[in-house]
Amino acid sequence: MKNNTIVSWLLASAMLMTATQLHAEAQAEKPVHGEYKDWLTLSVSHRLDKKLVRSIVGNDIAIKAARAGNTKPWPDGTIIAKVGWKEKTHPNWPQAVVPGEFAGAEAMVKDSKKFAETGGWGFGHWEGDKLVMNDKEKSATCFACHSPMKDADYVYTVPAMQ
Fold first, then answer.
1. Which of 62, 88, 118, 143 is the most exposed place for a label (fewest CB within 10 A)?
2. How many Cβ atoms are within 10 Å of 153's Cβ, its own excluded?
3. Could you tell me if 22 and 47 lie in one domain?
4. How confident is the model over 126-157, as pLDDT tens digits?
5. What does the pLDDT read at residue 1?
6. How many domains does the chain have?
7. What pLDDT score was predicted for residue 72?
């Protein structure tokens, strides 16, 4: 009986250690900035000048801030992604504009210390599942476009949270 208890305890310990290791490995494989495809929607937009429809999504920090009305300023750690498609007319409903060809996914990453020169925001884009931050020159171009939105923490998106 004592041997069965020891064997059971050793088996349970080994299973627990294996499960802990598998969980740690799964956590290590997650992208640093998460997977935008699984994020919740903050808002949508239709960019007339570029003929793009966009879904604007946010990481957990962005969603929590938007729901609380805590967006002026957005908290550090916020990541907002603009996922865009070329607009097209719905084939069976010509009055409707729908997503066409995928145009790309861009990001704004809030870190008030690291990106102090650009209002606390870093700018980037996704290449596959990897977020690639723009270089200083490209970020300056992005920031120049966002400068008119200084009073909204440089963000054009108006959260439409329910």
1. 88
2. 17
3. no
4. 988 888 999 999 999 999 999 999 999 999 99
5. 59
6. 2
7. 96
Question: Domain residues for 16?
Answer: 1-30
pLDDT tens string 46-75: 999 999 999 999 999 999 999 999 999 999
Q: Are residues 112 and 47 in the same domain?
A: yes
54 and 15 fall within a common domain: no
Listed in sequence order, the residues at least 6 apart from 130 whose beta carbon sits closer than 8 Å to its beta carbon are 31
In a domain, 79, yes or no: yes
Give the DSSP H/E element, type plus range, for residue 19: helix 2-29
Average pLDDT score over the chain: 85
In this prediction, residue 3 carries a pLDDT of 57
Instruction: List CB contacts of 66: < 8 A, sequence separation 6 or more.
Output: 42, 58, 159, 161
